[in-house]
């Protein structure tokens, strides 16, 4: 660490080497993370649905095909259009949209049809694995006699040292037809023209891995031999599946669940009335207000002009109709209770009805009319509560739990399950989405589905299967970013390290260390620590470069409008360094974020995966994730080291041969393995030494400073001595005043 160079900080804004590729330096050429080396060529599908045999030469797409429809041209040659700030692209899109509308019937059907082997190859090359967790098809139970016979055989084999046959894994794998480009959505699933145009308008051309498989599973392949028995494509389910989807951060899960929902709502009809007549039919739950608001924005962009509306749940909004004054009072009371909750408060807006009003008269216009509602669990639950009971939502057909593992974590579990159970429709389709998913979530999902099925009065409708779709290695960080695990020894060391990142000129030119250019996020363990770090770094950016306005702190204790303003300023590039807590660790999409700094080590491996996944989104290369650790973190850091190790392997980097970045084998071998209990403690409480301490006034203090403990003690003593001397000087006066006031007091 070059402390001396650090002292001579440059006032120039950080410079990057011209060769450095950064996520902020433009749109990603290819949003996919895997399968780059196996570019699969589709066969333009003729009306006869001719299948391509394995090994047969691929049919070249017609040469007259417009460049932007040639999705299978070499990835490197074709850069995806920038989504934002690209006026020329927009006008091009507009042109194409117009011409597309005019020549509706001339649209090129570019849907592909692979045979089963090819489906397998394509899905495997993109690291996709799809299994039917439960198809709920009744199977013949083995008789007690048969079970005893099998047990005896296993025992005999064991005694004789023979290989014991394990009960066979009955989980069936699926190989649906991969959907490799957005244009196929229209030719294959006949999605509305407007929805297709909106997707195009957003610059989406090539599908990401999760979209490649989720669209066929959720929209049902209605071409060819759908319903023709149990083939490996899952066509027999016709899109009626409950889905557990695990895909890397930034891999486009939002689009993957929104498009099938929009398509379903549109095909259900009633759109002439602006989608309003049919009312609320889909709910998306997200753990934070920031994520909920991002999802609703995405839904609005995709649904523009389709008649389907998307709304963000706000305090005071109603989702169920109620009648009678008594109920009004009850609900007002339950809403009042929500004031105590920080997140429900954060969802408040200008149009909120104050819950402190003794009697709130509800108008019909208060009731959500949108087709899709996006909410945090508590905000929605508060709106559903009618006294002790939770109102039912029988019309909801689609329920999405985004960041399902956190929504079903003990913190939110009760709220989330209450909402799930409130959606009483027998044809409710549920989707659980996240980049990380423990096996306990799978078990919980299956149990919930079983309980709901058992409670149904009629079982006339066939039960939907539960399917698990995994992209890449489960619970692993994305492979397209550089991880750097830095030992900083002490708290002061971390601060010095962070300052060095803020001033990359301090890094010697011959160093192989990764440099980090703004914009970046800095994560701390607690809110007081985020505030303290912000105070410490406030004047680190020179005035010529924007000074303190370039650095900000965002946490759950700020008002809703302050949070919104900071998010907007960060997205616009006005803020360069945003210090935050795990509030922004999940789901939030800042497209051009160059990196993430874990100033405090995350509380779990999953938290690491999500935090670092704020960079390198949609396949962007060059993101950097720096994690500082100190002596206190050593018992737990192996969690993080293992994630980095797995991600390096996924990327194809040999472990132990790297430069200063990544994980060296010796480090991996020498770190202690945390016990299950340690992991649990860390998850719930964080690193003990970093938990908030109270200052003299009882306020929580983050204790972040470059000063050593000794220096702080000396300062404290000095301050104490000065205060004591001041007190001594003022004491006689105070005493005199006190006796006067005492005298006055006696008079009363
Ligand atoms: N097919 C695509 N082509 C290009 N960009 C895409 C595509 N699909 C999604 N994106 C972009 O990728 C970014 C990340 O998408 P999204 O927020 O849905 O990721 P995610 O998988 O939900 O991530 P997280 O797990 O962090 O929540 C967004 O900016 C989105 O616009």
UniProtKB/TrEMBL annotation:
<feature type="region of interest" description="Disordered">
    <location>
        <begin position="671"/>
        <end position="748"/>
    </location>
</feature>
<protein>
    <recommendedName>
        <fullName>ATP-dependent RNA helicase ROK1</fullName>
        <ecNumber>3.6.4.13</ecNumber>
    </recommendedName>
</protein>
<dbReference type="GO" id="GO:0003724">
    <property type="term" value="F:RNA helicase activity"/>
</dbReference>
<feature type="region of interest" description="Disordered">
    <location>
        <begin position="326"/>
        <end position="361"/>
    </location>
</feature>
<dbReference type="GO" id="GO:0030490">
    <property type="term" value="P:maturation of SSU-rRNA"/>
</dbReference>
<dbReference type="Pfam" id="PF00270">
    <property type="entry name" value="DEAD"/>
</dbReference>
<dbReference type="GO" id="GO:0005524">
    <property type="term" value="F:ATP binding"/>
</dbReference>
<keyword id="KW-0067">ATP-binding</keyword>
<feature type="compositionally biased region" description="Polar residues">
    <location>
        <begin position="8"/>
        <end position="23"/>
    </location>
</feature>
<comment type="similarity">
    <text>Belongs to the DEAD box helicase family. DDX52/ROK1 subfamily.</text>
</comment>
<dbReference type="GO" id="GO:0003723">
    <property type="term" value="F:RNA binding"/>
</dbReference>
<dbReference type="GO" id="GO:0016787">
    <property type="term" value="F:hydrolase activity"/>
</dbReference>
<dbReference type="GO" id="GO:0005829">
    <property type="term" value="C:cytosol"/>
</dbReference>
<dbReference type="InterPro" id="IPR050079">
    <property type="entry name" value="DEAD_box_RNA_helicase"/>
</dbReference>
<feature type="region of interest" description="Disordered">
    <location>
        <begin position="140"/>
        <end position="179"/>
    </location>
</feature>
<feature type="compositionally biased region" description="Basic and acidic residues">
    <location>
        <begin position="709"/>
        <end position="725"/>
    </location>
</feature>
<feature type="compositionally biased region" description="Basic and acidic residues">
    <location>
        <begin position="675"/>
        <end position="700"/>
    </location>
</feature>
<dbReference type="Pfam" id="PF00271">
    <property type="entry name" value="Helicase_C"/>
</dbReference>
<feature type="domain" description="Helicase C-terminal">
    <location>
        <begin position="508"/>
        <end position="661"/>
    </location>
</feature>
<keyword id="KW-0347">Helicase</keyword>
<keyword id="KW-0547">Nucleotide-binding</keyword>
<dbReference type="InterPro" id="IPR044764">
    <property type="entry name" value="DDX52/Rok1_DEADc"/>
</dbReference>
<keyword id="KW-0694">RNA-binding</keyword>
<keyword id="KW-0378">Hydrolase</keyword>
<comment type="function">
    <text>ATP-dependent RNA helicase involved in 40S ribosomal subunit biogenesis. Required for the processing and cleavage of 35S pre-rRNA at sites A0, A1, and A2, leading to mature 18S rRNA.</text>
</comment>
<dbReference type="InterPro" id="IPR011545">
    <property type="entry name" value="DEAD/DEAH_box_helicase_dom"/>
</dbReference>
<dbReference type="InterPro" id="IPR001650">
    <property type="entry name" value="Helicase_C-like"/>
</dbReference>
<comment type="subunit">
    <text>Interacts with the U3 snoRNA and is associated with the 90S and 40S pre-ribosomes.</text>
</comment>
<feature type="region of interest" description="Disordered">
    <location>
        <begin position="1"/>
        <end position="102"/>
    </location>
</feature>
<dbReference type="InterPro" id="IPR027417">
    <property type="entry name" value="P-loop_NTPase"/>
</dbReference>
<feature type="domain" description="Helicase ATP-binding">
    <location>
        <begin position="234"/>
        <end position="455"/>
    </location>
</feature>
<feature type="compositionally biased region" description="Basic and acidic residues">
    <location>
        <begin position="158"/>
        <end position="168"/>
    </location>
</feature>
<feature type="compositionally biased region" description="Basic and acidic residues">
    <location>
        <begin position="75"/>
        <end position="95"/>
    </location>
</feature>
<dbReference type="InterPro" id="IPR014001">
    <property type="entry name" value="Helicase_ATP-bd"/>
</dbReference>
<feature type="compositionally biased region" description="Basic and acidic residues">
    <location>
        <begin position="140"/>
        <end position="149"/>
    </location>
</feature>
């Amino acid at each position: 660490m070059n402390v001396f160079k650090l002292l001579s900080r440059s006032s120039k804004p950080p410079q990057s080497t011209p060769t450095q590729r950064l996520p902020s330096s433009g749109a990603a050429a290819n949003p996919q993370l895997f399968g780059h080396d196996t570019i699969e060529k589709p066969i333009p599908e003729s009306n006869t649905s001719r299948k391509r045999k394995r090994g047969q030469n691929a049919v070249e797409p017609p040469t007259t095909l417009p460049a932007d429809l040639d999705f299978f041209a070499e990835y490197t040659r074709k850069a995806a259009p920038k989504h934002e700030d690209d006026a020329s692209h927009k006008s091009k899109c507009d042109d194409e949209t117009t011409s597309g509308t005019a020549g509706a019937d001339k649209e090129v059907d570019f849907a592909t049809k692979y045979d089963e082997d090819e489906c397998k190859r394509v899905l495997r090359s993109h690291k996709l694995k799809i299994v039917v967790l439960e198809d709920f098809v009744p199977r013949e139970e083995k008789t007690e006699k048969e079970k005893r016979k099998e047990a005896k055989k296993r025992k005999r084999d064991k005694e004789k040292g023979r290989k014991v046959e394990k009960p066979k894994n009955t989980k069936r794998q699926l190989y649906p037809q991969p959907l490799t480009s957005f244009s196929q959505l229209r030719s294959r699933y006949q999605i509305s023209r407007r929805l297709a145009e909106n997707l195009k308008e957003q610059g989406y051309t090539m599908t990401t891995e999760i979209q490649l498989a989720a669209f066929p599973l959720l929209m049902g392949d209605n071409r060819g031999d759908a319903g023709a028995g149990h083939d490996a494509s899952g066509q027999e389910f016709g899109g009626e599946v409950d889905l557990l989807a695990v895909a890397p951060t930034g891999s486009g899960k939002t689009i993957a669940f929104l498009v099938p929902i929009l398509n379903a709502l549109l095909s259900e009809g009633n759109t002439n009335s602006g989608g309003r007549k049919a009312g609320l039919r889909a709910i998306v739950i997200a753990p934070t207000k920031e994520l909920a608001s991002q999802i609703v924005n995405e839904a609005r962009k995709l649904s523009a002009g389709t008649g389907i509306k998307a709304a963000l749940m706000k305090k005071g909004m109603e989702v169920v109709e109620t009648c009678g004054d008594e109920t009004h009072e009850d609900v007002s009371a339950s809403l009042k209770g929500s004031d105590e909750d920080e997140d429900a408060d954060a969802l408040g807006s200008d149009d909120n009805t104050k819950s402190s009003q003794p009697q709130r008269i509800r108008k019909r216009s208060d009731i959500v009319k949108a087709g899709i509602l996006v909410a945090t669990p508590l905000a929605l639950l508060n709106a559903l509560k009618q006294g002790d009971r939770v109102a039912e939502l029988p019309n909801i057909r689609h329920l999405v739990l985004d960041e399902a593992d956190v929504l079903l974590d003990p913190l939110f579990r009760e709220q989330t399950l209450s909402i799930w159970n409130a959606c009483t429709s027998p044809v409710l389709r549920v989707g659980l989405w996240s980049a990380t998913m423990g096996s306990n979530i799978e078990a919980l999902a299956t149990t919930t589905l079983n309980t709901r099925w058992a409670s149904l009065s009629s079982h006339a409708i066939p039960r939907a299967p539960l399917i698990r779709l995994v992209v890449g290695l489960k619970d692993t960080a994305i492979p397209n970013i550089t991880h750097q695990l830095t030992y900083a020894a002490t708290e002061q060391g971390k601060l010095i390290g962070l300052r060095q990142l803020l001033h990359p000129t301090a890094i010697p030119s011959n160093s192989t260390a990764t440099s980090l250019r703004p914009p970046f996020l800095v994560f701390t363990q607690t809110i007081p620590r985020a505030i303290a770090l912000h105070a410490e770094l406030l004047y680190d950016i020179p005035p010529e470069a924007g000074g303190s306005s370039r650095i900000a702190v965002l946490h759950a204790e700020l008002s809703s409008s302050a949070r919104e303003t900071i998010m907007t300023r960060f997205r616009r590039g006005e803020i360069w360094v945003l210090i935050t807590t795990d509030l922004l660790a999940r789901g939030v999409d800042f497209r051009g974020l160059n990196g993430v700094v874990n100033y405090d080590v995350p509380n779990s491996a999953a938290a690491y995966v999500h935090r670092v996944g704020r960079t390198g989104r949609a396949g962007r290369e060059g993101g950097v994730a720096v994690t500082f650790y100190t002596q206190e973190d050593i018992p737990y850091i192996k969690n993080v080291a293992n994630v980095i190790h797995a991600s390096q392997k996924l990327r194809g980097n040999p472990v132990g041969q790297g430069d200063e970045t990544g994980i060296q084998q010796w480090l991996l071998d020498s770190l202690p393995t945390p016990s299950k209990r340690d992991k649990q403690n860390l998850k719930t409480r964080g690193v003990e030494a970093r938990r908030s301490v109270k200052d003299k006034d009882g306020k929580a203090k983050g204790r972040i400073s470059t000063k050593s403990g000794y220096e702080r003690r000396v300062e404290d003593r000095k301050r104490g001595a000065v205060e004591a001397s001041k007190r001594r000087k003022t004491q006689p006066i105070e005493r005199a005043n006190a006796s006067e006031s005492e005298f006055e007091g006696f008079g009363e």
